[in-house]
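Example (one chain per record):
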Amino acid sequence: MKIIIHGGFFSESGQSHEVKTAKQNSLKNIAQKAFDYLQTHSAFDTAAYAVSLLEDDELYNAGTGSQIQGDGIIRMSAAIINGETEKMSGVINIENVKNPILVAKALIGEDDRVLGGSGAKNYATEHGFENYSTEIPQRRKEYEEKLNNGGKGTVGCVAIDKDGKLAAATSTGGKGFEIPGRISDSATVAGNYANSFCAVSCTGVGEDIVSNATAAKIVTRVTDGMTLENAFTRTFEELKAIDGFAGAIAIDKKGNIFHQDSHPTMVFASFDGEQFKIFQ
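Predicted structure:
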């Protein structure tokens, strides 16, 4: 049983040492809680749980604390995939829910498993998800001043459970100031993908991740026999060729954990029950 989570990117020039320390502490705490949860739950349930904790933390651009789009409205996207069944479900540009990842998870049993906009919100309301504003004063200030907070924001989790089953979950509040209707990578197989061989969650610039098909490429290469590290190396070489900005976390069926970013620094934490690894 192992777990790795990410909380988007961190810019040393754009954020303080205090924020860096806060994110390190937060990621360690969430990784521990998620690992404890994994002891009695599946990788699929744990991935959703871990991402919901990240969504609840205002340090990250997902759920509470999401970025504001160009028209002053927050729209969020999230997805989850079960590596065993290879079923994926997600929401795109959903508004006014606390945890988009939990709405995405609820959709896994539906025939129509990816919903967008008002359809996603209507589904959430009909299934007991309360109306909730995810805006925080910092995001409103950034929007009004047209400032960038120095981070590329998305959160994610990849887990392997006691039965060797894999899952990945990803959630984002967008890049901020985007054109309303823009689709991120998070609810696509480019940004969130898993099968019985490997699971991957991405963060960064969604358009670059989609162009590179990052998560799907890594998983496919591992499935075809490439080592996890080599699959990352090959995929990130191709990302570099298009000057792409991305980071990814992954676990393969053997329990190997790997992460890589194209630019400094993706914030992440992993835990295997004995050792934490946290971004520096």
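Caption: The CA atoms of residues 64 and 134 lie 4 Å apart.
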